[in-house]
Amino acid sequence: MFPIAYHPIYKLPLPEGHRFPMLKYELLPQQLLHEGTVSPNAFFEPGLPNPEHILAVHKKEYVDALLNLTLDARAVRKIGFPLSVTLIERELRLAQGTLQGAEKALQTGIAFNVAGGTHHAYSDRGEAFCLLNDQAIGAQYLLDKKLAKKILIVDLDVHQGNGTAEIFQHNGKVFTFSMHGKSNYPFKKETSDLDIALHDHTDDAKFLEILQNTLPYLIETQKPDFIFYLSGVDILDSDKLGKLGCTLNGCKKRDEIVFSLCRKYEIPVQVSMGGGYSPDIKTIIEAHANTYRVATTFYH
């Protein structure tokens, strides 16, 4: 069984406008256990990260301001959450969950983080509910510890991974690939190594065709020895914050493409959940649960 990072602090209560999307962090593990997709011993609770691993990606001034709760009001508004000691602990454990998951994936082939995908966090600031960039931290950790030589970040959330693109813009050991909605946030995009901006209402057929034509080529040419996969389910046509037109089945087939290629090329992969904002929480849970269900067909 593949390892899954989960900590009770993931379901941190938030102000009224944010409580609904946070429900998935509590309900998703329950659903996976209830249906028998995973067993209780699959889950591990991440600890707190070594500060040096955070500072390998984020500027010290920014990290200090987070830890001391001294960010200015404008910076806090861009993040979108009121800062608190508990929120900062959540973000630290979330980042550590991805870092530990990356280590575990080297042994098991795949590892998950029930949360994560905080790809809007820049080296020197946070925005859009992202404070620390978990997959960037994990990627830099693998490089620094010489556990990987070339990393491919596959970001298939509906929003561009702008923070991830900025962090690795001058790092030839990390290739950033973001396939996202053209007219979605962020409205000023950064430049990933490869950006594919999709038109509004792009359907399953077009989305999957583009992915199938792109990802094998990237793996063949970049030859990564580790992949970070951001599997946001906000590509669904029902998503309140997305503008694409994919169905639950299309989202599931997307995961099948990614995992089948990781297995074919024997590349370890760490998976962070990313966004999902459909009006019905059942849709969000079903879409995220599908990612785990698909994984069980490739990783036993």
Automatic annotation (TrEMBL):
Boundaries of every Histone deacetylase domain copy: 25-283
Can you tell which superkingdom this protein's organism belongs to?
A: Bacteria
- InterPro entries, alphabetized: HDAC_classIV (IPR044150), HDACs (IPR000286), His_deacetylse_dom (IPR023801), His_deacetylse_dom_sf (IPR037138), Ureohydrolase_dom_sf (IPR023696)
Q: Return one GO MF term.
A: hydrolase activity
Sorted keywords for this record are: Hydrolase
Q: Does the keyword Hydrolase apply?
A: yes
Q: Which GO terms describe its biological process?
A: epigenetic regulation of gene expression
Q: Which Gene3D superfamilies match?
A: Histone deacetylase domain
Q: Where are the transmembrane segments?
A: none
Q: Which family does it belong to?
A: Belongs to the histone deacetylase family.
Q: What is this protein called?
A: Acetoin utilization deacetylase AcuC
Taxon lineage: Bacteria, Pseudomonadati, Bacteroidota, Flavobacteriia, Flavobacteriales
